[in-house]
From TrEMBL:
InterPro entries: RGS, RGS_sf, RGS_subdomain_2. Pfam families: RGS. PROSITE patterns: RGS. This is RGS13 protein. Residues 34-150 form the RGS domain.
Length: 163
């Protein structure tokens, strides 16, 4: 396999990424309309994460998605557990996947981590969303990564993506 098709394998290998069907041209084209359409689409977050890995910034989408899941937790016990995981993975200084947030936001999370609320990561999530929307999203749209995906679907249809 040539290096030029390697990215397709990483994206569309169903058994590795849990994708049961292929991404559509319609979905890929919608991603260029807004960052929100990208991160709320079926395959957008996973494909965007694959791109972010090339920039060594995939912790941003991981954190954003983890916050989305966190907000849906109803059990206080599970919320406390998940809040601690988010804190140790993304928020605390020198965390393995530390995200770029300012000190006041970090300090507010530190103050609230003992009794976390559903919204205790909202400001950090908003900042990370803004970073991605302003910085990496425009580069994603201009990247060979996105352009090749779009072009292959436009010229060959979804059949071009078969493993």
């Amino acid at each position: 396999m040539s290096p030029n098709t390697c990215w397709r394998c990483r994206i569309f290998r169903a058994e590795k990424n849990g994708i049961s069907s292929k991404v559509s041209l319609e979905e890929v084209l919608q991603w260029s309309q807004s960052f929100e359409k990208l991160v709320t689409s079926k395959y957008g977050p996973m494909i965007y994460k694959t791109y972010l890995k090339t920039e060594h910034s995939d912790e941003n989408i991981d954190f954003w998605l983890a916050c989305e899941a966190y907000k849906k937790i109803t059990s206080q016990r599970k919320r406390v557990s998940m809040a601690r995981k988010l804190f140790t993975s993304y928020i605390q200084p020198q965390a393995p996947n530390e995200v770029n947030i300012d000190s006041p936001v970090r300090n507010e999370i530190i103050r609230n981590i003992q009794e976390p609320t559903q919204s205790c990561f909202d400001e950090a999530q908003r900042i990370i969303y803004m970073h991605m929307e302003r910085d990496s999203y425009p580069r994603f749209l201009e990247s060979q990564f996105y352009q090749k995906l779009k072009h292959s679907l436009q010229t060959n249809g979804n059949n071009a993506m078969v493993n």
